[in-house]
Amino acid sequence: MRKTELLVGAFLAVAMLAGAASAGDAIDTSKKLKVAMVPKLIGLSVFKANELGAIDAAKKLNIDFLYTGPVTASAQGQVDVFNSLIARKFDVITTTSNNPTQLAPALKRAMAQGIKVVSYDSDVSPDARDFFIQNTAYPAMGKALVESVAKYTGPEAEVALLSSTPDATIQNEWINALKTYMAATYPKMKIVTTQYGQSSPSQSLTAGLNILQAYPNVTGIIAPDGAAVVGAAEAVKKLGKTGKVFVTGTSDPDAIRQYVKEGIILESPLWDEVKEGELVMYVARLAANGALKDNDTFTAGDLGTFTVKDKVIIFSEPLVFNKDNIDQYKF
Amino acid sequence: MTRLEQSTTQASRFAVLSSLISGWELALVVALFAVLGGFAVGAPGFFDGIGGLLQITQYFLPFGLVAMGLSIVILTGGIDLSVGATASLSALVMAQLWAMFGLNIWLAAAVALVLGGLLGAINGLIVTRLRTEPLIATLATSFIYGSIATAVGGDNPPSGFPDSFNALGIGTVDPTGLIPWQLVLFAVVATATGLLMGRTSFGRKVVMIGYNSGTAYYSGIPVQRVLLSSYVLSGLTAALAGVVLAAYYSAARSSMGDPLLLSTLTMVVLGGVSIFGGEGTITGVILAVLVLGFLRQGLLIAGYSDMVTTMVTGVILLGSIAVKNTLSTRRNLLRARLRRWRTPAHSPQTNPTVK
Predict the structure, then answer these.
(1) Count of the separate structural domains present in chain A
(2) Tens digit of pLDDT for each residue in B144-162?
(3) Residues of B in contact with A83 (CB under 8 A)
(4) What's the domain range around A64?
(5) Is the ipTM value over 0.95, yes or no?
(6) CATH number at residue B319
(7) Does residue A279 sit in helix, strand or coil?
């Protein structure tokens, strides 16, 4: 009861201006908003999946939606796009960043002009955005990645890591989380090498082959990057090590479907990208309405209720793909 | 053909050349006004007062800085593919000196410029001493410099430079926010390059080497020294662009310089500099920087995706090269016809080895 009163008090001015009477879960959609979604690059299926969900939610939330971004995964390209969105006076910019620091000045310029900034997937510096939607909590992802191979390789396995680049923020967070979980749960499990595929399919394949040839005792490869997991799986297939070396990683289901069916990847955790795209639009709407505080809870339609903690919203628990459920997900 | 005849054809050829180049520059001026006018009318948000328009230059002038040095190298008939890696490496060394050793950021920036010159000197020495094709030499060093940049950057490249330094990338000279520092810097560098190439013996030597390095050598021009200097200048402007980019992003990354090369090359070619050297002016390149820069930003503001702007850049590159080549082919054809018409008796003697 007191909580409701507080809420009503806090939003009285806003509610009066907007003419909305309810202070509950109903989202004020009276004013049309211009919201842009800027992925790391356009034409990648995981980001396309975000777009699908976003388009769906934008219709319900009276949002004029634009999906735009650079052709290659460059921060410079993203900044160019931000500059144009600022000039075109968008209400909200949502983005997943190619790197956290380089985008900050442009996004701060946007915020100085009253544009709300919502980051999702890969964060920018906290002072350069209003809210961040994190895919999954890092410890949960670390655990899911380790369990996805540990179940099949046993607790004393030698595993290798194949990541994207040494300075990829999110990959490094996952690697830290999985190392922490591994040390606590499987102290005898050993990481023999960490290699980088530069998010390129061919370089990831080469790195995968190198791992398998240089470390014949490796029975598991953890590849927390879309290109890396495909490269590692292809390397296992090429060297005929199917059933002896198990691969896991973070990838959209379309890219790994064949390897899951061939038994090279038995489990691979990710999250539902389509639904995440929907949530991005709900947060954009609420942020533009001024209806979201730094620490808060809110309901996003049929997605359920979410908690905001220090401007960070955790989207979901990892969703683990395996051969039984992977065909339900098409992105 | 007598020696006298030869020299008169050469003279008339130079006259044709110079009239053509100024025509090219005129076309670029028209293009610039068309771009500015077109977007001011057609893309709401593009023309937000003179201040807003000048603000837009900050988004592309680092390319202009690189284009100045690269033009000199291309005028010699060479190429510098390592400009992007040089920019990244210089910026990262500056950032690390500041972050790890607590060096004053401006001092670190000065070190970065010296480093850029050194990296350019390495390119120049490989080209002149090891007699390596500039294309291969600078391709190789671009890999080397790029890898070193990644190593210097480490897993958490520095960011968050002091605001006084960031002003170089995003600040304005006057408190009202009209004239960006970047524009002032570019004006200085562009004027200096223009004077160097247009008014000094160095500039003339560069063009002569590009036109015909053999002739230049036998005329007593120190070809190797001039070539070396041109690569040093290219490294220097690339490093300067790296420093400005670092200030603009308030961060340094090893991938930062990657987009520089191809856009800059397009600017140089669109500016009327022949990719084979010996032909072109800095004025043309400056105009091309403005045309391409405003065009790209205008397209983005008009709502075209990066995909379209990148494609348009490619089309312009092809188009400008094609137009130039067509023009020069026509010139050659004309000259060939003239020669045939004037010296019909010589034709059997010019092909004595034909069986």
Answers:
(1) 2
(2) 999 999 999 988 899 999 9
(3) 56, 59, 297, 300
(4) 31-135+272-317
(5) no
(6) 1.10.3470
(7) helix
